[in-house]
Specification:
It contains 4 helices and 5 strands; from the N terminus they run E-E-H-E-H-E-H-E-H.
Length: 117
């Protein structure tokens, strides 16, 4: 993690999926870290991703674009993107722009992983 970016992104395997844990704020300045991790996993051939936003305090349109693009890429390959989030602030952003229908949002990692079965 670069200290000036105020974000930490880590990927780890979980069953047939990869879980991307994000901690910090996803904005214009930090979104490249998220993009590199998520799209790097897709480029490596991973078709099922869980993006855990539980520790994300802020998400702007740049971050939403990354998630939308990743979801589209995965769907084209028969894969899925699941999001773990109970943060009201982030969920409100999804609701305001109509993304709750586009994303599979779960309240726990276990629920997200079970959705791939």
């Amino acid at each position: 993690m670069n200290s000036h970016l105020e974000i930490e992104v880590n990927a780890r395997p979980a069953g047939k999926a990869q879980v991307v844990d994000v901690n910090g704020e996803i904005d214009l300045y930090t979104s490249q870290v998220v993009h590199k991790c998520v799209h790097g996993l897709i480029d490596q051939g991973h078709d099922h991703l869980v993006v855990d936003l539980e520790d994300v305090g802020y998400l702007d349109s740049t971050g939403l674009g990354i998630l939308m693009n990743a979801s589209s890429r995965l769907q084209e390959r028969g894969g899925n993107l699941a999001i773990v989030c109970t943060n009201d602030r982030v969920l409100r952003i999804f609701e305001l722009i109509g993304m709750m229908e586009s994303f599979s949002v779960f309240s726990s990692e276990a629920e997200a992983l079970a959705s791939f079965s």
